[in-house]
Amino acid sequence: MTAYRQAALESLRQQRGDARALARAAAAADPESVPARLLEATVLVLSRDVRDFEAAGWAFARLSPIKHVHVGALAAALDSDLGLACRIYDEILATDPDDFLALWAAQLMDYFSGNADAMRTRSARVLALRPEDHAVLSIHAFALQECGLYAEATNTALRALELEPRDLRAEHAVLHVYEMRGEAAEALRWAAPRANDWHGAHHMWWHLALFMTTLERPRAALALYDQKFRDDTPAVLIDASALLWRLQLQGVEVGRRFTPLAARWAAHAEDAHCAFNDLHAMMAFAGAQRFDLAERLLAAQERRLTRPFGANFHMTRLVGHPACRALAAYGRGDFRGAEALLRSLPPVAHRIGGSHAQRDILQLTRAAAAARRSNPTRGENHVFALSQRLAAA
């Protein structure tokens, strides 16, 4: 195994560093190595950036003549059949539970599809055979918290950290538990001695910003925004949009921050590759009042809906397109229309992907729209209480 490939796999195991860059370096260093090329193609196909997805197609083209169990899963993923890809990965894991790439890829695909039960079932099977593997423990911990099993998730994540104190995925799972339990102050105390080691881990800082928002410390949350969310990768842009939109829903003055954020998203306005991306791009466009970009995004989604195949077709049709229309309406001040669109989302809205902590933005926006529809001058003071009532309805 080359040093680059080992480093890339370790990056995936700890959720640290740039696994994509390391995987590409591994393939470049040893272009005849099938494992290195498989690693590169797998990491690329699971990027939320359509440009990486297209690069995965070229990487796959060099692999397609090779008979290897992973090649079939890659082919399914490139056809946007994530269900078939996961079934192939599960077959791989049934005979080789040590195949971490198969576990990582399948878990991420189910995460993108909002299928938490499948995540938990798969990681439990592998954990039964690898009970002392910190990476498997942390993957299972994240799946457990997505299924609402918070005590078990915490214990599992802490066990992973006993085995590998730098397992960022395990720390991430613990932060999610704090978020779902509403324990913001406790989360900040737990994170304080660990945060200095979160180099480049913008998503961890996003969680801390959410806790600061909950504790009514918007200036601290905005300071983190200004310091930690400068890259233009979709993952960073998603967190940046989600944070500013939440703060705005609470009535926090975010200044002109939406304007440069919308400009950073502009290159992705017509991707229509991932409904989850589209949703967050629309937050930036609506927040910045860039309705020219909002219309480009909606038109691209409508073009995508003329090609009825693949997982993103269904995500866009059922959730992505109506939710983006709702955000655009909200940005224009049409709170009645925004609330009606969000209220009409089907019970499978969770299939847009992401975590519970990320997807609740739809419920928060619906609550804000309902509050502003009835009383525009007081709405922001009641958003979070109303969101709880709407969720229970």
Task: Tell me what the structure shows.
It is a single chain. The protein is an all-alpha fold. The protein folds into 3 domains: 1-113, Serine Threonine Protein Phosphatase 5, Tetratricopeptide repeat, CATH 1.25.40; 114-181, Serine Threonine Protein Phosphatase 5, Tetratricopeptide repeat; 229-393, no CATH class. It has helices at 3-14, 19-29, 34-45, 50-63, 69-78, 82-95, 100-112, 116-129, 134-146, 150-163, 168-181, 184-191, 202-214, 218-228, 234-249, 258-265, 275-287, 291-304, 311-331, 335-343, 356-374, 383-392. Helix 4 (50-63) packs antiparallel against helix 5 (69-78) and helix 20 crosses helix 21. The model is unreliable at 378-393 (pLDDT under 50).
Sum up the overall morphology in one term. globular
Largest sheet: none
Class per helix and strand makeup: mainly alpha
Our measurement of the CA-to-CA distance between the termini, rounded to an integer number of angstroms, reads 54 Å
Mean pLDDT: 92
- What is the count of distinct domains? 3
Q: Give the helices and strands as they follow along the chain.
A: HHHHHHHHHHHHHHHHHHHHHH
What percent of residues are in strands? Answer: under 5%
Number of strands: 0
User: What is the helix fraction of residues, given as a range?
Assistant: over 70%
Radius of gyration, whole Å: 21 Å
Tally of separate helices: 22
* Uncertain regions spanning at least 5 consecutive residues: 378-393
Characteristic key phrases:
393 residues; mainly alpha; Serine Threonine Protein Phosphatase 5, Tetratricopeptide repeat; 3 domains; 22 helices; disordered C terminus
